[in-house]
Specification:
Blueprint lengths: L6 E2 L13 E14 L7 E9 L5 E6 L4 H4 L8 E11 L11 E14 L17 H7 L8 E7 L5 E4 L5 E9 L5 E7 L1 H8 L8 E13 L2 E5 L6 E4 L4 H12 L4 H6 L12 H6 L4 E12 L6 E4 L9 E4 L2 E4 L5 E2 L3 E12 L2 E8 H8 L3 H10 L9 H4 L5 E8 L1 H5 L4 E8 L2 H9 L14 H6 L10 H5 L22 H5 L4 E4 L4
Parallel strand pairs: 1-2, 4-6, 10-12, 20-22
Antiparallel strand pairs: 2-3, 2-5, 3-4, 5-6, 7-11, 8-9, 9-10, 11-12, 11-13, 13-23, 14-19, 14-21, 15-19, 16-17, 17-18, 19-20, 21-22
InterPro entries: Euk_RPA1_DBD_C, NA-bd_OB-fold, Rep_factor-A_C, RFA1B/D_OB_1st
GO molecular function, one term: DNA binding
Organism: Cuscuta europaea (European dodder)
Length: 506
C-alpha cells in the first residue's frame, strides 16, 4: 500500500482529524428526511444513522446545499463504502447516537454501494432494543439520547386528541413488554394521524417497535414519544425483532385462548427431534419437545451480570466494583441473572440446553435476585440448590433453539434456548402433526416401560431378542425434512400487518 492509498477506518476511530483517504464501510441503519419549512414537499436535509462491522453507530447529515447531489443515491439498510467527510462535534439534545462526533457530507464525499451478502461478518441487527426497566431507570431527564424499544398495544385502547380541523393532534396508549411492565406512549402530529389510518384487521394485541424514540418525564412518570423526524414506528411487520417478541408473547401465555387470539402457528418444518437437532449442520431455527431429566449446575444457577437489562453479559470484579465484559460499564453491584443448564430427552435421544434469565423467570416466577434473597432468609447459602430449581426436573416443554455458526464449532454441544412454553394447545399442535399410531406416554418416567410396551418386545432374558428390535420413536418429532434456515413461516408472516410509520417528505 502506498502512502496515498485509501485505508479502512472504524467508526470508533472517527474524530475531527479524519483523513480524506479513510474509508468507512457502513450500513445505513435508518434514514429520514427533514422537509423544508417553506416548502414541505422539498427536503431541507437528509439524516441517517450509520453502523460499522463492530456495531458502532454515528449520525451522518446531508445539508441543504448538498441534498441534490446525493438524493436518491443512498438507500436505507444498504451497505456502502464512504469517504471524505467533514466531522463536527455531536452536540444537542435527543441525539440518535452517543458517538461524540457527527459526519457531514461534502461536495467531494464519495460513496459506493456494496453487496451486503458478501460481508458475512457484518452485523444484521438494525435495532438496539432497550427494556422498559432500563428506560425507566435511565431516561429521567430531557435531552437523553434516542433509543429503540418494543412492546404490545391495542388499537381499541388508543385515545386520540384532535385539532380544530379534526385531524389527530396526539395518540395516547399503553405499551406493555413481555414481563408485563407498562409505559405510556404518545405519538404526535403526523405520527398520530398515520397510526389512526392504519387498518386494524387482525386480532389484538399488536406489536409496535419504536426506532429512535425519546422518553420524557411527566409528574414522575416516564412517557415514550416520537421525535420529529427521527422516529420510525413499525407495527406487526415480519422482521426478526417483532417475530421474536410475538413468539415469546405467545409462549408466555398458558391458556389456549391466548394462543388462539394471537393466531400463533408453528411451522411443522421447524419441528425436530433431539437426534435431528444434533445432526443439523447449518444456521437454523427449530422447535423441540422433551422432558427435563437433569440439571447440570444445581449450585451455580446464577451469575452477576451487567446493570443494563438489554445486556446479558457477565460482570467481573474490577477493584471494589464490577465491570461488564461487553459494554465496559463499571458499577457497584451487578444484577443477578439465571443461567441453568439442563438435559432434555425425547424418544430419539437427549441434548444439553442452556436456559437464560428470561426463560427461567418465566418458569420460576421470580428473579434470580429474589430467589437468592429467599434462600438467605431461610438460612440457606445463596449458591445452594433450591426446591424451585429441582422441581424443573420432570417438566415437559417446547423449546425454541436458534443454532448459530458458533454452535457447530463447539465440542460440548450446549444449545441456547430462545423461547419456551408449557402451553397445552401448542404442545398438542406438535402431537397433532403426527400420524404415529404408537403414542408415547409423556407422563412415564421409565424408559424401560416405554421400551417393553412396543409390539414384539417381551420380557425376555435373551439379549439377542431384545437388541433386534428397533427402539420406538416419536414420529411427530422425526418426520419432517430440514426446510428452513431460521426464517419465520410463510403462514405466520402473511397473517401479520405490514405497517410502518416514517414522517418525512419525498
Amino acid at each position: 500500500m502506498t502512502l496515498n492509498s485509501p485505508f479502512k477506518v472504524l467508526l470508533k476511530d472517527v474524530t475531527t482529524q479524519l483523513d480524506d483517504k479513510g474509508v468507512l464501510l457502513v450500513r445505513v441503519v435508518h434514514m429520514w428526511i427533514v422537509p423544508d419549512k417553506g416548502n414541505s414537499s422539498e427536503p431541507y436535509m437528509i439524516d441517517m444513522v450509520l453502523m460499522d462491522e463492530e456495531g458502532t453507530r454515528i449520525q451522518a447529515t446531508i445539508e441543504n446545499t448538498h441534498v441534490s447531489t446525493f438524493k436518491g443515491k443512498i438507500k436505507e439498510h444498504g451497505l456502502y463504502g464512504m469517504m471524505r467527510f467533514e466531522v463536527r462535534a455531536n452536540n444537542g439534545d435527543y441525539r440518535p447516537t452517543s458517538h461524540p462526533f457527527r459526519l457531514y457530507f461534502k461536495e467531494s464525499t464519495k460513496i459506493k454501494e456494496r453487496d451486503l451478502s458478501s460481508e458475512t461478518e457484518f452485523p444484521k441487527d438494525l435495532y438496539t432494543l432497550k427494556s422498559f426497566t432500563e428506560i425507566k431507570n435511565t431516561h429521567r431527564r430531557a435531552g437523553d439520547d434516542l433509543f429503540d424499544t418494543i412492546g404490545k398495544f391495542k388499537f381499541d385502547n388508543i385515545k386520540y386528541s384532535l385539532q380544530p380541523d379534526g385531524l389527530p393532534r396526539a395518540a395516547e396508549f399503553i405499551l406493555e413488554d413481555l414481563d408485563k411492565n407498562q409505559l405510556s406512549c404518545t405519538l404526535w402530529g403526523e405520527y398520530a394521524q398515520a397510526l389512526r389510518n392504519m387498518p386494524s384487521t387482525s386480532a389484538e394485541p399488536h406489536i409496535m417497535l419504536l426506532q429512535l424514540c425519546r422518553a420524557k418525564t411527566d409528574y414522575g412518570e416516564v412517557i415514550l414519544a416520537n421525535s420529529f423526524y427521527y422516529t420510525k414506528v413499525i407495527v406487526d411487520e415480519s422482521i426478526p425483532e417483532i417475530e421474536d417478541f410475538h413468539t415469546k408473547l405467545v409462549a408466555s401465555s398458558q391458556s389456549s385462548s391466548s394462543a388462539n387470539s394471537t393466531g400463533f402457528f408453528i411451522d411443522p418444518a421447524l419441528v425436530k427431534s433431539m437426534s435431528e437437532l444434533l445432526a443439523i449442520s447449518k444456521r437454523s431455527r427449530c422447535w423441540i419437545f422433551g422432558k427435563i431429566t437433569n440439571i447440570l449446575n444445581r449450585r451455580a444457577w446464577s451469575y452477576q451480570g451487567c446493570v443494563k437489562e438489554s445486556c446479558s453479559k457477565k460482570a467481573s470484579a474490577h477493584g471494589d466494583k464490577f465491570k461488564c465484559s461487553k459494554c465496559n460499564e463499571v458499577f457497584d453491584q451487578g444484577i443477578h441473572r439465571y443461567k441453568i443448564t439442563v438435559i432434555v430427552k425425547d424418544s430419539s435421544g437427549s441434548v444439553t440446553l442452556c436456559l437464560w434469565d428470561h426463560e427461567c423467570r418465566q418458569l420460576l416466577h421470580k428473579t434470580a435476585g429474589q430467589l437468592r434473597e429467599q434462600l438467605n432468609l431461610s438460612g440457606i447459602h445463596e449458591t445452594a440448590t433450591s426446591k424451585e430449581i429441582d422441581d424443573l426436573v420432570g417438566l415437559h416443554l417446547l423449546f425454541r433453539v436458534d443454532i448459530s455458526e458458533e454452535d457447530f464449532k463447539k465440542s460440548d454441544k450446549v444449545f441456547s434456548v430462545r423461547c419456551l412454553t408449557q402451553n397445552d394447545d401448542l404442545m398438542n399442535q406438535f402431537l397433532a402433526k403426527t400420524n404415529d399410531e404408537q403414542q408415547v406416554d409423556l407422563e412415564s418416567d421409565d424408559d424401560l416401560e416405554i421400551f417393553f410396551s412396543q409390539p414384539g418386545v417381551t420380557s425376555s432374558n435373551n439379549i439377542d431378542d431384545a437388541t433386534t428390535t428397533t427402539p420406538m420413536s416419536k414420529r411427530s418429532l422425526l418426520d419432517y425434512e430440514e426446510g428452513h434456515d431460521g426464517g419465520s413461516s410463510t403462514q405466520n408472516s402473511t397473517s401479520k400487518l405490514q405497517k410502518t410509520i416514517k414522517v418525512e417528505k419525498p
